[in-house]
Design a protein that fits this description.
single chain, 747 residues, alpha/beta, six-stranded mixed barrel, 23 helices, 27 strands
Length: 747
């Protein structure tokens, strides 16, 4: 047996694990035993794994694994073809689209699960081989608001600017909008110290598994009304300022913007906050006092998650959380800190090296002339040939197949999708699916036939996590080695190999290495001098077990630095070294207007991950959570005549606060699950499931004007009892190989 040290393929905690695999026998012999996973001691997980991690190896030999390219034939079926045929066809389609419509007619949609090497080379491929500005990735749906807020406050965005292990000494942790007990269970052990001290404070409209950890004196649960978390944070800041709790010396020495901040929170005294949020004024004052006392005499941390960030004002809400942390003197101090919990496996590294529409490798701005000149030198291309900013994800997807208006550039006609399942994960998913079907050509790289791959003209089989070498960056900015533990299927290929071959077919003016080490060496040079500087990190240092957090530059003496596990100890990343208190303002929330209307929040459950392409194929996980159910308060359900287990139809309201939904719009059809854990004005639906159970059929494509983050958490919907679906199913619009029909009620 071989034992390979690597890391879990799922969330950004990147728990350490070992893959135990039997050696491969001769092709004619009996099959080798399936590989297994073992926990491995590491600071983030301390040897533990969640259910998803323990079962990760089951996917490596899954019978639905893609092992050869699939091309849609004239009869509409996906049929196997050779790699030569597949790659030649892609090159021809790219040339046709760009000859007819221009360079930006070809788009690229990446993923936060790609290794650093693949994310880097994909961004380079878009801008150098394709010459397009139309690239973005699914991290836009995850971390974009937190990133925008951190950049404007601190001048730098790293999920946690301190190691996770620092939380072990905390006596107070304020956790806003994150259900870590379900989404990253091994993280919960880092909250033990705060729970023991009675200082775990959870802000969540639901009584989630994480909120339940505050019971029996372990802390406080603040349960605000939907879309009032910004008001809640402004209210906490008001109490801190007016209660004499602010860290005045720290604010004077290290921040700017205090006067504007004082004016911005003045309207939100505790009783007014109570009226808007439903959180009692006394509880608001107790929370502020607890935070301030811990910040002065103990160890206090403020952590945010998607619950407060996935809003059309998510950047402002995350900014309000940062303002609160700065008022308490936490960022960069020895008494605690502020951070945001990155979601996807390489959500941190995936956004640092060129997948985002407005960024170049090293977390450089694509509009910065110095950054463009640096990358032009590394890539060996003229600076003018590097495209400018593209479109953030929602706008990019809205442009699919769109004809050119007079005097304007048309939409994307040919799209590459890598590591994303946008038919399930994108907002207003029905419109996204129509956009994919309007394309001239869609190429999807995946290891399973996802719902997005089912729409493709060409599907390329790629490698899974245990079949490849590379690096990822976890939620604390620590760069980790991913190691090959098993051999891939004969017909599957790495995205690096694919990009190498396509770049050659497209006569790209720069090199595209297929060896991960070579790509990482180029990434080191590309990131050198940037905010996310990896130039001092090498495979050798990582393989030797060094803990390397970026920025980790190559020193002026030629020697690499030790990295930066804790940021902002001496200065923030703005040119003057000071943090910015950015005044933000909140509008009064729009309440559900009447009987049958609710605010829909979407999120995750313990056994499933992201769009479910992987976890829905693990038997034990699917058995535990086989379907998405709509969580509904019993009192609200009773008024609508809905019992536990009844089928319900969920439709988006015509307008926020409108009394009726449009019968013509897309709907979700699921069973109800009655729960006291949700508020009577709120319903909750997990987003992991496809077809008529896909939550994002009804979420809005409305976005944050700063970050481009979609509004995933507060869509106004109508819920009504529905008849049991009949046996007649309406199939997907495009016939496909082994296509699972899109479940809808029969006409």
């Amino acid at each position: 047996m071989t034992v390979t040290a690597t890391h879990c393929p799922y969330c950004a905690l990147q728990c350490a694990m070992s893959v135990v695999a039997a050696p491969q026998g001769p092709p004619t012999g009996p099959p080798a035993a399936a590989p297994e996973v073992a926990g491995r001691e590491f600071p983030t997980n301390r040897g533990g794994l969640c259910r998803k991690g323990w079962t990760a190896a089951e996917l490596l030999g899954h019978p639905e694994r893609l092992t050869e390219p699939l091309l849609r034939s004239d009869d509409g079926e996906l049929r196997p073809v050779s790699w030569d045929v597949a790659l030649t066809r892609i090159a021809a389609e790219v040339r046709t689209a760009q000859d007819r419509y221009g360079k930006d007619a070809v788009g690229v949609f990446g993923g936060g699960g790609l290794t650093n090497e693949k994310a880097y080379l994909l961004g380079k491929f878009a801008r150098v081989a394709l010459g397009t500005s139309r690239i973005d990735y699914n991290g836009r749906f995850c971390m974009s608001s937190a990133a925008a807020a951190a950049n404007r406050a601190f001048g730098l965005d790293r999920g946690l600017p301190f190691p996770v292990a620092d939380l072990a000494g905390a006596d107070t942790v304020l956790l806003l909008g994150s259900n870590v007990a379900d989404t990253m269970p091994p993280f919960v052990q880092h909250l033990a110290s705060a729970r023991d001290a009675g200082g775990l404070i959870v802000v969540d409209p639901r009584r989630s598994a994480t909120a339940a950890l505050t019971a029996d004196g372990a802390g406080l649960h603040l349960q605000p009304a939907p879309h009032t978390d910004l008001i809640l944070l402004l209210g906490l800041a008001h109490v801190v300022i007016n209660g004499g709790y602010a860290a005045r010396g720290y604010l004077t020495e290290r921040t700017d913007g205090m006067e504007d901040l004082i004016r911005s929170v003045a309207p939100w005294w505790p009783e007014r906050v109570q009226a808007a949020t439903g959180v009692p004024a006394a509880l608001l004052r107790e929370t502020a006092a607890r935070l301030a006392h811990s910040a002065r005499t103990g160890s206090c941390y403020i952590l945010t998650g998607r619950g407060i960030e996935q809003h059309a004002d998510g950047t402002d809400t995350a900014t309000a959380a940062i303002n609160l942390a700065l008022l308490l003197g936490l960022p960069g101090s020895t008494r605690g800190g502020y951070g945001t919990l990155t979601g996807q496996g390489n959500g941190q590294g995936g956004r640092e090296h060129g997948q985002k529409a407005d960024q170049l490798p090293g977390y450089r701005k694509i509009t910065d002339p110095a950054a463009r000149e640096h990358l032009a030198r590394v890539w060996g291309v003229p600076e003018a040939s590097i495209p400018g900013p593209g479109l953030p994800a929602v706008e990019l997807l809205a442009s699919l197949g769109a004809p050119a208006a007079e005097g304007q550039t048309g939409g994307v006609r040919c799209l590459f999708v890598h590591g994303a399942n946008i038919v399930v994960s994108a907002p207003d998913a029905t419109a996204v699916r129509r956009g994919l079907q309007a394309l001239d050509f869609l190429v999807v790289s995946d290891f399973f036939l996802s719902e997005t791959a089912l729409e493709a003209d060409l599907v390329l089989p790629v490698l899974q996590w245990a079949e490849e070498e590379g690096t990822v960056t976890n939620l604390e900015g620590r760069v980790l080695r991913r190691r090959q533990a098993v051999s891939p299927p004969a017909g599957a290929r790495s995205e690096l190999w694919i990009l190498n071959r396509l770049a050659a077919l497209l006569d790209a003016p720069s090199g595209f290495p297929e060896d991960p080490r070579e790509v990482f060496e180029e990434l080191r040079a590309a990131s050198a001098g940037g905010p996310a500087d990896y130039s001092g990190i090498t495979y050798g240092r990582l393989d030797a077990g060094e803990a390397l957090h970026w920025p980790c530059p190559q020193g002026p003496d030629g020697l690499p630095s030790a990295g930066t596990p804790r940021l902002f100890a001496e200065r923030f990343a703005h040119a003057d070294g000071r943090a910015r208190l950015v005044a933000v303002r909140a509008a009064a929330p729009v309440r559900p207007s009447g009987r049958g209307e609710f605010v829909l929040a979407t999120g995750r459950v313990l056994e499933q991950y992201q769009s479910g392409t992987q976890t829905r194929r693990v038997a034990s996980l699917s058995a535990a959570q086989p379907e998405g159910r709509l969580s509904l308060h019993p009192a609200a359900a009773s008024g609508l005549g809905i019992a536990d287990g009844d089928w319900v139809r969920v439709r988006r309201s015509g307008e926020a606060g409108a009394a009726r939904a449009s019968s013509a719009g897309p709907a979700v059809l699921v069973r109800a699950e009655l729960s006291l854990g949700v508020r009577p004005d709120t319903v909750f639906l997990p987003f992991h499931f496809p077809g008529s159970a896909a939550a994002n059929r009804v979420t809005e494509a409305r976005t944050d004007p700063i970050s481009g983050m979609p509004e995933f958490k507060t869509t106004h919907v109508i819920v009504e009892r529905a008849p049991v679906p009949g046996p007649v199913l309406v199939p997907a619009a495009r016939p496909t190989l082994a296509a699972a029909p899109d479940l809808q009620e029969a006409p």
